[in-house]
Amino acid sequence: MKENFIKKYTSMTGGASAAYIEKLLPLIDEIRELKKKHNAVILSHYYMTPELQIEEKEGGIADFVGDSLGLSVAATKTNADYIVFCGVKFMAETAYILNPSKTVLLPDDNAGCSLAESITGEEVRKIKEKNPGVPVIAYINTYAETKAECDVCCTSRNAVKIAKSFESKNLIFIPDKFMGQNLAVKFKTETDKNLILWSGTCEVHEQFRTNIESLTMANPNAELLLHWEVPQETVESTLNKNKGIVGSTSDILNYVEKSSSKEFILGSECDLGATLKGMFPEKQFITPCIMCRHMKLISLQKTLDALKSINTPSQQKYQIQVDEPILSKAYIPIKLMLDLS
Ligand code: SF4
């Protein structure tokens, strides 16, 4: 198992010192033991650091690694008593809303998200007053009290499908302005939908601008992998020069799998680059490596601390809960998203 972990970790990081890896191994052993003891699972997002993204079967700690949609689905399928969420707060909230009988632990309560923080439930109510009868689609990167005011949720993977499922020509899409603008371009060619947008942005993806342009100029044969949350002007100015894709995290993974190209430029969170290197070691990924400070608050040590807190007074510090009536109201748009996906 130890050898499997070292092999995977090395392929994801492009090499790490043996001394550093040796420091990780005792933490991993302890986490695995505590998971067994407490019947806990670890759900880990692709933006986590590599040591948190390696699955248990590969010698790591994660039971499931995925994007927001994959993690939401995994949360509905587990029989565990505890879900430890290696991700950010809105994700842990979503897991709890789907499993209120389980205990959901987030290793650092400060792991937020600039998109989720950009809009409140009160602000959604005001948008609805201005646009009566127009359905509201909430990107999953929102807090429960915001979701509670919306008709349906979506992730970057199913946003197009969800939007097309509504008959209404006008749709309110919150909170990501850039993702909304990128979707609007796609809709122009495929549907008659008109999106009313909010002004939120992802503080990571909004930084993919001239850095991507320079990389495309320096690497004209590399294919571009841009996330929906990247500014529309970046997509417009680069995707007409280099081959590539703008889409969700899973679109990016699928694209790389099918492409015969050996070289890619990544316009998404830095550790998705590690995920890609681990999955496709024969390909090369060039990235400006911009990290999400919220995601990086989660570490192996904090994950271990969260597991150690189970059945002690400090469990409270890690436990994510959503109270009624928000819980029941936020469940409706999340469940509708899962049904439509
Ligand atoms: S990468 Fe962006 S959208 Fe994702 S958690 Fe960080 S701030 Fe939020």
Keywords:
single chain; 3 domains; 5-stranded mixed beta sheet; 4-stranded parallel beta sheet; alpha/beta; binds iron/sulfur cluster; Rossmann fold; 16 helices; globular; 341 residues
Describe this structure in words.
The chain has three domains: 2-109 and 295-322, NadA-like (Rossmann fold, 3-Layer(aba) Sandwich); 116-197, NadA-like (Rossmann fold, 3-Layer(aba) Sandwich); 205-286, NadA-like (Rossmann fold, 3-Layer(aba) Sandwich). Helix 3 (50-53) links the parallel strand 1 (40-45) and strand 2. The chain is built from 16 helices and 13 strands. The two termini are 35 Å apart. It is globular. It is an alpha/beta fold and 341 residues long. The strands form three sheets. A five-stranded mixed sheet has the order 2-1-3-4-13, sandwiched between helices. Helix 1 crosses helix 13 (270-279), helix 2 packs parallel to helix 14 (300-308) and helix 4 packs parallel to helix 5. Helices cover 45% and strands 15% of the residues. Bound molecules: iron/sulfur cluster. The site of iron/sulfur cluster (SF4) has 13 residues, from loops.
Radius of gyration, in angstroms, nearest whole number: 20 Å
Strand order across the largest sheet:
2-1-3-4-13
SSE topology string: HHEHEHEHEHEHEHEHEHEHEHEHEHHEH
How much beta, percentage-wise?
Answer: 15-25%
Our count of helices gives 16
Tell me, what is the CATH class of the largest domain? Alpha Beta
Bound molecules: iron/sulfur cluster
CATH homologous superfamily descriptor of the largest domain = NadA-like
Multimeric state of these chains? single chain
Our measurement of the CA-to-CA distance between the termini, rounded to an integer number of angstroms, reads 35 Å
